[in-house]
Amino acid sequence: xxxxxxxxxxxxxxxLLRGSLARVLPIFTWIVVDIVLWGFIxxxxxxxxxxxFDLVPALLGAVLLWDxxxxxxxxxxxxxLEDIWSRNFLNLFATPLSVGEYVTGLVLTSVSTxxxxxxxxxxxxxxxxxxxxxxxxxxxxxxxxVLFLFxxxxxxxxxxxxxxxxxxxxxxxxxLPALITPFAGVFYPISTLPDWxxxxxxxxxxxxxxxxxxxxxxxxxxxxxxxxxSVSLSVFYIFVACWVFTxxxxxxxxxxxxxxxxxxxxx
Length: 267
Description:
By secondary structure, the chain is mainly α. It contains ten helices and no strands. The chain has helices spanning about 5-20, 20-50, 55-85, 90, 100-130, 140-165, 175-185, 195-200, 205-215, 225-255. Helix 3 (about 55-85) packs antiparallel against helix 5 (about 100-130), helix 6 packs antiparallel against helix 9 and helix 9 (about 205-215) packs antiparallel against helix 10. The model is unreliable at about 260-265 (pLDDT under 50).
């Protein structure tokens, strides 16, 4: 893997962001909407429920962490789709660029934009609604790590779906985080779910993050063993997603699928 080729992928995405306000604004617009909406919801719930428990870190904190995961996943997918929309994918792989270098460049681009978004969320939520992540202590770092790793895995898998089914299948990509949300227990304990949904939750790394977050808020502590399990699951999913993407890419090259891409076809 050549670092300068990975850097070139990142540079291209930077030029796209620099040259288009329409690409930059969504990074911050939806952040502001989420913070304002959920911030006032939590403030209202604090007013009408028991004052002994602060819902701001429980709900608004969960929203921020989940938003971080979603932006990692969507950032990776959007950077890939930019090349699909511009019909530039064939041009990229007519060069010596490898699949690993390309995917690494997309991942680093997504990380950069997501970190900027996270900082904006933390500052806005802290200044306007008094949210402080200090309550989680050092456990915040493994929480973010798990969401970061799983976001990468899901983003690579989403890109593989588009690469295999064609540009029109991007509509399968955007709902993926929403489909996972009920199983991840973002806003409620996993124990409230039916048994069959709990079995699915145990295979999702974010579920352990939000369970650990609630445990800290209720005066207990997050299980280090479960967090280690969630990190291991996330790394495993990344390897699986990379394997799937590579296999799909080789199939697309072998069958000439890339050359037949059109915005209207899904097969």
